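Field reference: sequence -> structure
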Amino acid sequence: MCEPIHLNYYYHGKQFCEPNYSWGPGVKDHYKILFIHEGQGSYLINGVNYYLKKGQGFMVFPNTICHMKADEDEPWVYSWIAFQGKSVDSLLAQVKLSKEHPHFTYAPANWFDSWLELFAHAEALEKNSEFILHSLLFRLLPQWIDMLMEPDQPFNLPKAKDEYVRKAVEYIKANYYTKISITELAKRIGIDRIYFSSLFKEVEQLSPQMYLLHYRMDKACDLMRNHQLSVSDISHSVGYADPLLFSKMFKKVKGESPTHYRRKLV
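Structure field:
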């Protein structure tokens, strides 16, 4: 049996540092991953000073004195995710990160941007914000670890928001003939309904409801070729218990009734 993973989201952020901006020496009581988007700077930990730049990142460890400073000529722009939990050390061991080796290289340099967008949206929600923030952390860390474990391979991860939509589309295609609630679908993939609808429309150019409707009607068109099936049979096959409602929706999408559409098929 797998041991439960213990992780707790703390906070996230992004900073455009001024020349020579510095933090510390100081300590945090949690872990923090920092991603360098632009520029360069130095990170001092355990008496060793690391000079890091765009496309690199570094770890802050709990209760460990560290100091970070932006370059005078090309100050860095960095973002971060902070968290705590009993499982962190074992996760970091997979990518050989420690106080003795606190930095890493990642690509592309804007990899974390889409995650920042997701965290910002989740933080602004009135309902289930904390739950969604934690669920995002559980999604982020495995992708980050996978990326660091395959540094020599082209690792083009889809945007996190695209991943949510992909899972929703897969579910719709596998279950279009059943009753599908958009609210339940959003819960199934772990995000707020309003946020889910917004993401889905951004990616697919259709609302989830309209995507489901169009997919059902396309399936109905395929079934029309089977003349052993009545319109009522087809209606039930694509998720409509009421054939009259099915005919109304079919005409809305295809511009004609199921009967007229079928007559044109050879």
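Note: The longest strand covers residues 8-16.
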